[in-house]
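Rotation project, supervised by the postdoc (A.L.). Task for the rotation student: set up a whole-complex structure prediction and record inputs and outputs verbatim in this book. Inputs entered:
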Amino acid sequence: MALNLVMLGPPGAGKGTQAERFAREHGIPKVSTGDILRDAVHSGSELGQAVKAVMERGELVGDDLIIGIVRERLLRADAAAGFVLDGFPRTAAQATALDEITSARGPVICVEIQVPDEELVRRVRGRRVCDDCGANADAFEQKADVLSGLCQNTERCRDIGPKWVARSDDSETVVRERLKIYWRDTRPMIEYYSARPTFRVIDGLQSPEQVREALVGAVASALGMPAAELRTLVAQRLGGDDVAPSRARQKGEAQA
Ligand code: ADP
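Outputs recorded:
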């Protein structure tokens, strides 16, 4: 059973955090186009140089470029059993391309996380990422009072020291621009998915743990099975008995 999941929603809705955790617990890769592009900018590659200014303005990079990146990434062996897409598709052309890329891969489940704009601006302005690896502090369920601690994502981060910083495109002006583009280009595209039987909506104002549970429930219901059955299937695939989420997470990490 392939688990093909697309996370939809505005910047700051919690897609990245939830995608990261869902991928880890279900043994499939998270494919975040924002992360891929930020890595390219960080490394100074040709791609990074081409997209840096566009990203800093909060605009979208070209469809052909991003479609090519996603097509290549989803063809890799680790995505054969499924994937969690975060940040793609964002336009009608990208959605059409994704249908074509996934046409022979089983159902694609689309989950939209809904959060009002003012809450998004508040969240994004407070968001902190690791200056070295780009990981979002929220993804590690860090509380604000321990944010001065080290990023634990890679050995390098653990050694370097506290490096939590604001993302360069998270200033209020740029966030408002990203939201404008979201409502203009991306939200109409979500209408394209909303008529499908595998489309689900969840309330992103709940706690991260509640959103996580709602996400698992949404995926299971889109696949036509109870959440417990999905957990059993995933546990079997990860090579164990039916495991509690915390153990599944450790297993996922051990495999990473
Ligand atoms: P957000 O917090 O807005 O969800 P992301 O990390 O997904 O941010 O993306 C950051 C930036 O990367 C976007 O503002 C855009 O410039 C670029 N980007 C990411 N994904 C796409 C995409 N699918 N199409 C075009 N541009 C993209």
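Student's summary: Residues 242-256 have pLDDT under 50 and may be disordered.
Supervisor addendum: Strands lie at 3-8, 30-32, 82-86, 108-114, 129-130, 164-165, 199-203.
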